[in-house]
Design brief:
It is a multi-pass membrane protein. It is found in: Cell membrane. One of its GO terms (molecular function) is transmembrane transporter activity. The chain is mostly helical. The chain has one domain. It has three helices and no strands. Helix 1 crosses helix 2 and helix 2 packs antiparallel against helix 3. The longest helix is centred in the middle third of the chain and has 29 residues. 0% of the residues are buried.
Length: 61
């Protein structure tokens, strides 16, 4: 993930914006595990436990 992040940043962002862009992209690595249980519980309460797999699978595709 990290090498591809560097390549992505070099193509899409200017030299002055690369640090901020890299920080924003890598923040998901840290906030994803924090938010996933909260979202999972909300989905289970709203639907059922099988819906978690369908919804996360659809988002992943």
């Amino acid at each position: 993930m990290y090498p591809s992040n560097a390549v992505f940043n070099s193509f899409w962002f200017s030299k002055n914006e690369k640090g901020r862009a890299s920080s924003a992209l890598l923040a998901g690595s840290y906030f994803g595990p924090v938010l996933a249980p909260i979202v999972t519980i909300a989905i289970v309460n709203a639907f059922n436990w099988q819906a978690v797999f369908y919804i996360f699978g659809a988002v992943g595709i």
